[in-house]
Amino acid sequence: MTESPSTSVWTDIGSFFLKALEDASPISVVDPDPTTLTPMPAALGGAAAGHADLATQASEPKGFLELLRAKAHYLLLPVTLIEHLQGASATVMFTGVDSNAAAPPASTAVVLGADTPAYLTVLGMDLGRQVSSSDPGPLGALYGELCRAWLQLASGEPWKALNDAGIAHYTNAATTDGGVDPGEAWGAAVSEYVATRVHEWIALLTNLSNAARDSTLSPASRSQLLDDVCAAYEAAFERTLYGQVDNKPLVQPTFPPELRDLVDEHLLGLNALTCHYAQTPLVGILDALRAMPVQPPAIDNTEVKRKIVATALAESYLGSGNQEQEIIWIYVNLVEQHNNVNGLRRSSAYKHEQDHYKVYLYLVGDQRYAGHKVGKGYGFTPGNTVKRQAAMTSKAVREKAAALLALMDRIADHQEKNPHPHWYGQGNGDDFNRNDGKWRTARAYWWLQEKARDTGTDIPTWVIRLPPDKVKQVSFIFDEDSIKTYYETNPVPDDVPPYVPSGH
């Protein structure tokens, strides 16, 4: 058996990177409080500001395995496989275009998609922080590939005995197309078993985190959600068939308990994900979530109100009418939909903490970014602090910011009637001309409105151009849910012309 390192064996990775991982390594998602989920440390990717450097380190095979091991510790995932591969100085290759790159069954190299370092960099950053819609699937596939490569690379005991037992069990293996090689069937089955356990675990963590962060849920709704989450996790233990050969699923034999026990012990290190929910470290979170009270409306919070205003300012052309006075309602709706600031993540300015958002946030009284340096763009002076750049903004912009903050206060006090209830779509002219998802259908409905206006036909107005005249610096707001429903029963035109302002 190849010995596993207890500490890092790499010396050619940046020492700062290694030190940061070591400092973060004692922390797991349930430390120090087992009744709540602890957000990921910044050193592991918990803060967007460090992602570029982390992705660079993770693009190197040894750095990738170090980061994966550190994240595995935080996420309570198995580190055994990773350490075995590190100890054997396994080859790690990034190839293809996605994280589902396939390796030849007999390859001793770990073969991963070219996008895997970027995926690993952001993995887990939303846990305990905000509602996440990220797909946990790639992590399971990643672990499945680690398993496949290690069983090809390993020699000695207990690996020989494990492989011999697996191959013997799969002597009569067959897919829907007939009999297959026992060794290939065993490798496919054990890899998919490992991938499935990891997938179910990270899905469980994500669902628990989302249940904790979605403060709009009533106690009954949250309890039902938690019941469904735990039931889904438990149901996966009932699965008995694993593996595909030549993209055909194995139909025999089943994956027996005795092989499962050996894999759980030697490949997964009897990790938490091999246990039923009641035996995992996450059990304490369940009762705490069931007792979680319904939160008061998010827009009653001063900090949230300022963030909404700064986001609306950042999403508006402030020199083109009063777009911000309409756009703010979109972000009020999104925050009310989530009952927290996660709704603002629809805005790239907010999500990526762009410089103009920081300046506008400072203008409305939030000084958290005061000392940050701004870069190029937005007419800013590179190297200025946010505080300095805010002081250089025009009187007109400062007045718009003050007026919008006053409007936000009236909205929170229910002194303003929402002119666009349940509208969640907003973007500039470039966004509006995109041909993916909601943008294409929103633009199609816009042209339908224009045709109806020209012909005197009465249809609902679900898209509004801001300002209404045909200027270049234009934004659009729209009722994306109503438009989506409309096009579920009406065809989207094959040709949806772009929006081009007159005279440009």
Strand content: 5-15%
Give the strand order, joined by hyphens, for the main sheet.
4-3-6-5
**Separate helix tally:** 20
- Uncertain stretches of 5 or more adjacent residues: 1-14
For the report, how would you describe the main beta sheet?
Answer: 4 strands, antiparallel
Give the overall form: elongated
Radius of gyration: 27 Å
> How many strands?
9
Estimate percent helicity: 40-55%
Mean pLDDT: 87
Task: Quote the distance from N terminus to C terminus.
Answer: 70 Å
Structural class: alpha+beta
| Sequence of secondary-structure elements | HHHHEEHHHEEHHEEHHHHHHHHEHHEEH
What does it look like?
By secondary structure, the protein is α+β, with helices and mostly antiparallel strands. Helix content is 48%, strand content 6%. The chain contains 20 helices and nine strands. The strands form three sheets. It has a four-stranded antiparallel beta sheet, with helices on one face. A three-stranded antiparallel beta sheet has the order 7-9-8, with helices on both faces. Strands 1-2 form a two-stranded parallel sheet. Helix 1 (15-24) packs parallel to helix 3. Residues 1-14 have low confidence and may be disordered.
List keywords for this structure.
504 residues, alpha+beta, three-stranded antiparallel beta sheet, 9 strands, 6% strand, elongated
